[in-house]
Amino acid sequence: MELLVTIDACRRASARSITAVLPYYGYARADRKTQGRESIAAKLTANLITEAGADRVLAMDLHSGQCVGYFDIPVDHVYGETVILDYLASKRIATGDLVVVSPDVGGVARARAFAKKLNDAPLAIIDKRRSAHSVSEVMHLIGDVRGKVAVLVDDMIDTAGTITNAGKALLQEGAREVYACTSHAVFSPPAIERLSSGVFSEVIVTNTIPVAPGNVFPQLTILSVANLLGETIWRVYNASSVQALRD
């Protein structure tokens, strides 16, 4: 609501252009109807931002690409993977020891793009079944992780059920270590208990959502996306290419 009020205030103050910067698009997961009488809140939120008076949106790691199409104004979609990849590179994990894992079938495209930037690292996929909202059960692992360092890649961690079940499955299949990487640390209970239970060697997140001091645990690493967003804002203001940041 504060964003909508601020946009309206800028519009009434005759701002030449208004860009809404959304490090975390809160309703991105409600991007379709999965059953009757459900709202498509991602589309509703896009309409509200547009009607409030925004001329452009800058968003980071949307849950699905279709959210871009919900806006009737230009959207610049940037990816926090750049920051995470730089951090992983600093750990100097041997390419032959590395495997990138998608925690579900829906995240395969994201994991494939991530693996390509890690010298075309092998890809594995967790096939899961979700029995209810925020409840998941691991069913099958597609790919070889035995003796390797597994890097789980997702756009967000909410209750951490999906990624923790995936991590346990990888360890059972012989993975040497498991890293969890995500852009958005939502951390709804009982996420902290699950993530700090010893399944992961490290949980790597960005600061698109501020992590409360009480939610910090020894395995957690928080990376800043300030420079990435700052560079993107500069490029938008100067009408330069935003896509070049990812290329």
Descriptive account of the structure:
By secondary structure, the chain is α/β, with parallel strands linked by helices. It is 29% helix and 26% strand. It has helices at 2-12, 41-52, 81-90, 108-116, 161-172, 191-195, 226-237, and strands at residues 19-22, 56-60, 75-78, 98-102, 123-132, 135-142, 149-157, 177-185, 202-206, 220-223. It has a 7-stranded mixed β-sheet, with helices on both faces. Strand 4, helix 4 and strand 5 form a beta-alpha-beta unit. It is globular and about 60 Å long. The two termini are 34 Å apart. The model has no long low-confidence stretch (mean pLDDT 92).
What is the count of β-strands?
Answer: 10
Q: What does the largest sheet look like?
A: 7 strands, mixed
What's the end-to-end separation, in Å? 34 Å
Give the ordered list of helices and strands.
HEHEEHEHEEEHEHEEH
Radius of gyration, rounded? 19 Å
Q: Report strand order across the widest sheet.
A: 6-5-4-7-8-9-10
Structural class: alpha/beta
Q: Characterize the overall form.
A: globular
Low-confidence stretches: none
- Seen as an oligomer or otherwise, the chain set is single chain
| Fraction of helical residues | 25-40%
Mean pLDDT: 92
Strand content: 25-35%
If helices are DSSP runs of H or I spanning 4 or more residues, what is the number of helices? 7
